[in-house]
């Protein structure tokens, strides 16, 4: 099942060249694929099922596509982590974490409605991609001991960063090399 999923993810992934000296990942083929949508929740959930997560948290915005699939597969709920500056559709109070400079060198903040995660939760962070690990690091700092790890589709982090953040991926950077 997971082998099939990995094959589908590799097959539906594209690099695009906007002509600005770097390539940009095009992940739209993933969301268009019924096979990927059917398998992605369980595929990512299986990376952490043994750790019995009780809630999934994902960063804005692509994380909002992936996180609910994983929450559904685990039978738990989903919480949005918004970027500062977003027009928040949820009530205060929020807790905020500084995001270290990410893969574009940009600093930001991520915020979660504090009442949605309790100290007894076991938080699984889910995202489509990890490059520097900045989003995962920020959310780990936000949740402290309730953080159990981060599941991503593509893990491009340095191995020591992935280990430190308990970050696991379905694919590595080598799987989608241009
Ligand atoms: O490991 P990091 O260096 O933190 O990078 C990973 C982040 O980069 C991508 O998001 P992006 O900022 O491109 O925003 P998007 O979700 O709006 O596409 C991806 O969805 C992760 O959230």
From TrEMBL:
Pathway: Purine metabolism. InterPro entries: Adenine_PRTase (IPR050120), PRTase-like (IPR029057), PRTase_dom (IPR000836). Signal peptide: none annotated. Keywords: Cytoplasm, Glycosyltransferase, Purine salvage, Transferase. The keyword Protease does not apply. GO terms for molecular function: glycosyltransferase activity. The keyword Transmembrane does not apply. It is found in: Cytoplasm. SUPFAM superfamilies: PRTase-like (SSF53271). Belongs to the purine/pyrimidine phosphoribosyltransferase family. PANTHER family: ADENINE PHOSPHORIBOSYLTRANSFERASE (PTHR11776), PHOSPHORIBOSYLTRANSFERASE DOMAIN-CONTAINING PROTEIN (PTHR11776:SF7). Homodimer. This is Phosphoribosyltransferase. It comes from Paractinoplanes ovalisporus. The lineage of its organism: Bacteria, Bacillati, Actinomycetota, Actinomycetes, Micromonosporales.
